[in-house]
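fyi for ur records
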Amino acid sequence: MSKTHVKIPGKLYLAGEYAVVDGALAIIAAVDQYLQVTVEASQTGQLHSDQRDDLELTWHRQGQWLVVDQDHPYALVQAAMQVAEDYLSALGETPRTYYRLAIKSELDDTNSGQKYGLGSSGAVTVAVIKAVSLFYGQTLSPLTLYKLSVLAQTRIGLTGSFGDLAASSFGGLISYQRPLAAWLSGKIAELTIGDLVAQDWPNLMIERLSLPENLAFLVGWTQSVASTEGLLGQVAKNTVDKKQIRQDFVRASQTCLEGLVRAFQEADVLAICQEIRHNRSLLSNYAKQVGLLLETPALATLIDLAEKHGAAAKTSGAGGGDCGIALIADSVKANQIRDSWAAAGILPLDLMIAPPLP
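which gave:
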């Protein structure tokens, strides 16, 4: 193709944070704010992002490698481009042409440029791989797209659960368990990219769920930014001598999430709200035990205001800032919650769960 254009949704966690890193269940929503990537045939290799209008990179081919001859902030984008091309080569379609890759994001605040916490690094990884593959005529399944995205992030040393990659690859609402980290790192060194993608990845589980039609999904932004990598690192540091605490938390979170998955499958609104509150309680207790500030004053206010109107509410993601969510089966009270958030300096985000991706 001479030009391709894709848009990939951001994500928000509904439940299962922190435990998901250890292989336990999480529920994640893709949201209808998107990151867009356009790939267009060009005489030279070019890379541009709307977040840095002053920076236009050029890249060239050196054998099978895509090379940029200057320092730049787009290591993840370059890794995603390389993984996409490596996979195409494994399929027998070695890329040889040049193209301009342009990125446009809706996942940040347009006024301040601050991140909402919608998983921009995950969305850009998925979007770049999907767009480059389509440019060369290869349509990837959501599962293949997810696996390639994991490999791209792993190449530059990113760690975590990769749940954002699953949400952005599949769209909609999903239950998720990460693949076994030790197995994956071993197989990356042992197998070709084609063989690795074709393998079943132990413990990996991605299944689609649906939000009951009468259940409103509300998102509030505290207008502050949290670092997921930093918070996970803080937890790792603080739990060196608290292995049992961690194990107990992961076990309890898994039981809670199994109940929450069943509640979504049965469209049981009451049970969904009960398990969301339960998960908040588990996270709060765990944070106190390991010395982690999960609910900042702004997030605590967000949750308390939602609960006063009858909603089930909690932090979303790593906490420490960014977003909180609320679920309520009453449209009038949903609007009251948004108004109360705004009055308290919390920005209600106009977000819905994005449609599933084919």
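The first helix runs from residue 75 to 90. thats all i got for now
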